[in-house]
Amino acid sequence: MMKRRMVWLFVVTVAVGGCEQLSPEMQLIHDAANALGGVEAVEAVATLRVEGSGNNFRLGQNRTPDAALPRAAVESYTVEADLRNHRMRWEIASANFAGRVNAAVTAMDGDVAFNVGQDGARRAAATVARERHTEYYHHPLTLLQVALTAGEEGAAATVGNLRQESGQDVVDIITPDGSELTLHVDSESRQVVRIASPGYHSNLGDVETATTFRDYAAAGGLMLPGAITRTIDRQPVTFLRVTHTIDADLGDLAAPADVATAPEPGPPAANVTDEELADGVWLLAGQSHHSVLVELAEQAVLVEAPQHDTRTLAAIARARELVPDKPLSHVVNTHHHFDHSGGVRAAVAEGLTVVTHETNRALFEELTSRTHTLVADHLAQQPAELMLETVAGDDTLELGEGRGTMQIFRMGDNPHADGALVVYLPAERMLIQADMFIPGIGGEFADTAAALLQSIEDRNLRVERVVPIHGAVMALSDLEEAVEEAGN
Prior knowledge:
Layout: H1 2-20, H2 24-36, H3 39-44, E1 47-57, E2 71-82, E3 87-95, E4 101-109, E5 112-117, E6 120-123, H4 126-136, H5 140-147, E7 158-165, E8 168-174, E9 180-186, E10 192-201, E11 205-219, E12 222-232, E13 235-246, H6 257-260, E14 273-278, E15 281-285, E16 291-295, E17 300-303, H7 309-322, E18 328-332, H8 338-341, H9 344-349, E19 353-357, H10 361-367, H11 378-381, E20 388-391, E21 396-399, E22 406-410, E23 421-425, E24 430-433, H12 444-458, E25 465-468, E26 474-475, H13 476-486
Parallel strand pairs: 17-18, 18-19, 19-20, 24-25
Antiparallel strand pairs: 1-2, 1-13, 2-3, 3-4, 4-5, 5-6, 7-8, 8-9, 9-10, 10-11, 11-12, 12-13, 14-15, 15-16, 16-17, 21-22, 22-23, 23-24, 25-26
């Protein structure tokens, strides 16, 4: 009898001891969970609300490519997460480029991503759903909760590749939905200081998206961060001061039934319309960002390759249809901002020479050499060398000969983009510009409109019509009246 009891005690001791033996990677996960308030406390959280405010930093919208990013206030930031059902809702009110506050509501319910607007909820593309899956885990609580499932039967996370970087313990985590993240834990406090993941940006290609955390404070029995910073390739894009509410009643975060059953939308198509403004000059409009096609004696030139591959390739195709018997030789980039240079890589792949101001040379050389492996864009699929012509200082670059020439030069003092170019067509008395005069939009654009008018006067240009990359063609008098009304 005594012998049986001793054997039983030995088996129990071994089993308990075995449960306590954690791999070094899982020991780090447990240490980080304990720093939040304990493994059981982390696992028990059912819902999470994060609220705060701060600033967005407008990536790719700085005055020069190497200048600090302009900031815009985030008036309110609310994220709600249902951790039992893998659902999340983001509601953010932030100032736009003109200082107006816009609210955006986005959400995710499992594999269904959707956006909520004034006309209701609409399903987003599968690529957006994958991005939001990863975004869901960019918080210590959500990532640790799933990481604690590593080693369990069925769909569970994997944790591996323990290492040290800059005084931090680091592991890689793959979540059950396939999101890949890297967790950085402070070697002393054991608090989560950084979560990073690979991502894709249409201008920058393969990027690292990271969220850093500090100023931990008590919240609902846990210790959670009070300051959050988001970066893309080490450039800050958001800074927030936040508070947390644990296990609040969030209501139902499920996708509406009609959204959940709706087919996943495909990639957006480009709508390119053409309007002949003068003999050999067409406005290629149809969406928010336009291009202008100019036919010269020996070639055709496209002004602006905006937004992304889809838009720019459609504009290039229409340009070649409109002028089929001459080569489309150049694309003029008005300024480096990402919404106006997003199609430059596509233009390079199509063999066009890029004209831009000299301040953008290094940026464009970098952009056209970056890797695009997560999403193979047109240049990745059809590699080509960058052919670049730059406008130096306040010099004028001319394309074409005789009466049918186009003059390209830097506009004067410009608070929006220092190296912004305008295109002047002397024969047509027409000036093509981007982001310098947008009727009805004030803020910094009141100053750029005044600078544009001053530049026209200083150069003694005979302008009758102003052709914008945004909005409708206007008379010079419209610009003059707007500047006068603004008191500039």
